[in-house]
Amino acid sequence: MKILVYIQQDEGKINSVSLEALKGAQDIAAQTNGTVSALSFNADVCSQLAGYDVAEVLVVEDDNLNTFNPLFYLKALEDIAKAESPDIIVFGHTYEARDWAPRLSARLDIPFISDCIGFKNEDELTFIRSIYQGKFNSDSVVNNGAFIVSFQSGAFRVDGLQSGSADIRQVTVDLSGAGDSIAPEEKFQEAEQAIDLNQADVIVSVGRGIGKEENIELARELSKTLGGEIASSRPVVDAGWLESSRQVGSSGQTVSPKLYLALGISGAIQHIVGMKGSKNIVVINKDKNAPLFEIADYGVVGDIFEIVPKLTEKLQNA
Ligand SMILES: Cc1cc2nc3c(=O)[nH]c(=O)nc-3n(C[C@H](O)[C@H](O)[C@H](O)COP(=O)(O)OP(=O)(O)OC[C@H]3O[C@@H](n4cnc5c(N)ncnc54)[C@H](O)[C@@H]3O)c2cc1C
What we know:
The chain is an alpha/beta fold. 28% of the residues lie in helices and 25% in strands. The strands form 3 sheets. Strands 9-8-7-10-6-1-4-5-11 form a 9-stranded mixed β-sheet. Strands 13-12-14-15-16 form a 5-stranded parallel β-sheet. The model has no long low-confidence stretch (mean pLDDT 93).
């Protein structure tokens, strides 16, 4: 089983969802006696990738690939897939991947199993997708031939990546026929305070239990003390108390920090799908039957307005 993992980067910084996907590929290879190759369009990134346990790192250097352009990226990976014949092409399920992985699937005429949360290798290699707002999981199997798979943020943990020492191989592609119907303009900056919560190790997340906008300061103070980011459930964003980029859940971001501290969040399935991959989940809620306690590593039944200021103070004095 030959597995090729595309590693997304931005100005030499590896996208963490791609690294998680690399861990997924390592796990698949371990269970199928396969090999993993990592591919990037950036030489610095390839040097970093060479430190992981992969058979080899493929680098394509072409000025047309310096910034994201789905037509050039598509043509590059089409050429590489045809030359290298991987059995599986793996992506992290990022916004970029959503743009060009389906195009690649069409171009190569191979299936694409998107947004997977894991895999199992019992009788056959099976990919698991979460459907109907996380209420059910579906199993997908490709019976014949190569295919593409993308893994959701949080599906695998980067800290489990096996390290190693791999060779870097330069590969060439012919982008001349890629087409020029898409011309990137200046890089899009989201709203001024837009935040990629995927980069945060600690997230302090507030729900409707926070009561009113002014009270968010309590959580902000705790988050600052822990060196984390503030996030929320949807009602807090709907009320306009935090910007939408801080919403966690099915219509917000999917996060997998080392610590997710949930303050006054009940645990609706639409919220849980966005944070259940967190390594440690701490829930503070005054309702002992709040569903979020079911997936908590540590749960405190109590009032956030009593607990949070004391917790912040203790941490500041520690
Ligand atoms: C299509 C669709 C998409 C959605 N997408 C998302 C999404 O991306 N993200 C998301 O979060 N939701 C989403 N939702 C909404 C979701 O269904 C829930 O309504 C929402 O998650 C509930 O948010 P909450 O837990 O903050 O509020 P509530 O369910 O109202 O819970 C508030 C909690 O705070 C507790 N509480 C109150 N006061 C205190 C206190 N003083 N101390 C301690 N605890 C207290 C209460 O006991 C309660 O458990 C979506 C819904 C739909 C239909």
